Inverse folding.
């Protein structure tokens, strides 16, 4: 895992936006996996600003969102579909036909989930999957103890997740208890993963994900098995990491290895 620690949420956003921009500038990155939640809002704002400055183009981008609440129609103010429309899609030039979403009202759940998997494969797979993380270590809506080999599926939400989502709904009883989510293995199939974590409330989850054992009790810990993951967090979310000095050193000194190697080559050639 490449763990990047930044001072605050603004610096996390700048780093993440730069990475997304760079990847989209490469032709082979076209398919994005997108998250909802409070964390990516700043990233979406930064991407919109970049788009307005002509630094990033969504004309060829294909998107697959991670999850959706069961029971909400796409126009429901709290649906993730609506969230994406308001926070990103309506502000950039992504083509509506390239936007993919799980339905909150599927007629046949199993068929719908299998169809979503098929659509991802048909699009060529997800090139860059952006993720947030739940306080309990969930990714998408893959809650603790859900299978680390899961594909897109329906899930019940934990009490903690329901409480965390309460802030978006008027009444506690309106908060959905079930959702559809890309599976852990669906996420792991992505070519590259960028996970954002900000704030003190994520410190335990970040610690378990990066330095804990790989276990279904913290679904995000499976990312330790992925060869191309960047975790970018602010100081508060990184506060419980034991090896933070190492992450900071490697982050600040990436260029040094090549300089060192060039120096050694010169030394050997000079002998
Ligand atoms: C929800 C979403 C996740 C998201 C998590 C954290 O559960 N399904 O994809 O990562 O919330 O959200 P926030 O960024 O608001 O803390």
């Amino acid at each position: 895992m490449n763990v990047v620690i930044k001072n605050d949420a603004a610096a996390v956003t700048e780093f993440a936006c730069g990475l997304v921009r760079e990847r989209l500038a490469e032709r082979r990155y076209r398919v994005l996996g997108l998250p909802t939640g409070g964390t990516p809002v700043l990233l979406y704002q930064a991407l919109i600003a970049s788009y307005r400055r002509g630094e990033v183009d969504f004309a060829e981008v294909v998107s697959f969102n991670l999850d959706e609440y069961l029971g909400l129609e796409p126009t429901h103010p709290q649906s993730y579909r609506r969230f994406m429309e308001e926070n990103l899609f309506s502000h950039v030039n992504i083509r509506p036909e390239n936007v993919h979403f799980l339905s909150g009202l599927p007629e046949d759940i199993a068929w719908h989930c299998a169809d979503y998997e098929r659509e991802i494969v048909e699009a060529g797979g997800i090139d860059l999957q952006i993720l947030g993380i739940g306080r309990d270590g969930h990714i998408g809506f893959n809650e603790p103890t859900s299978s680390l080999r899961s594909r897109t599926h329906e899930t019940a939400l934990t009490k903690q997740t329901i409480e965390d989502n309460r802030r978006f709904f008027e009444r506690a009883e309106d908060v959905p208890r079930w959702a559809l989510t890309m599976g852990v293995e669906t996420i792991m199939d992505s070519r590259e993963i960028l996970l954002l974590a900000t704030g003190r409330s994520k410190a335990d989850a970040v610690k378990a994900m990066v330095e804990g054992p790989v276990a279904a009790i913290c679904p995000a810990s499976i990312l330790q098995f992925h060869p191309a993951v960047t975790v970018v967090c602010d100081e508060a979310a990184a506060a419980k990491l034991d090896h933070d000095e190492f992450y900071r050193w490697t982050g600040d000194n990436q260029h040094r290895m090549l300089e060192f190697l060039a120096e050694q080559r010169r030394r050997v050639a000079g002998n």
The pocket of GLP is lined by residues 35-39, 66-67, 132-134, 140-141, 161 (CB under 6 Å). The domain at 2-240 is CATH 3.40.50.1360 (Rossmann fold). Strands lie at 2-6, 31-34, 62-65, 67-69, 99-100, 128-131, 153-156, 178-181, 192-197, 229-234.
